[in-house]
Amino acid sequence: MRQPPTVNVMQPNEPVIKQINADALMPPRGKYSHVVIAHGTAYISGQLPVDGEGNPVTSESFAVQARQTLSNLDACLTTAGLQRTDLVQVRVYLTDLGNWKAFDEIYGEWIGSHRPARAVAGVSALNHAAGLEMEATAVVSVATR
Question: Which segment of the chain is annotated as a signal peptide (predicted)?
Answer without folding.
Answer: none
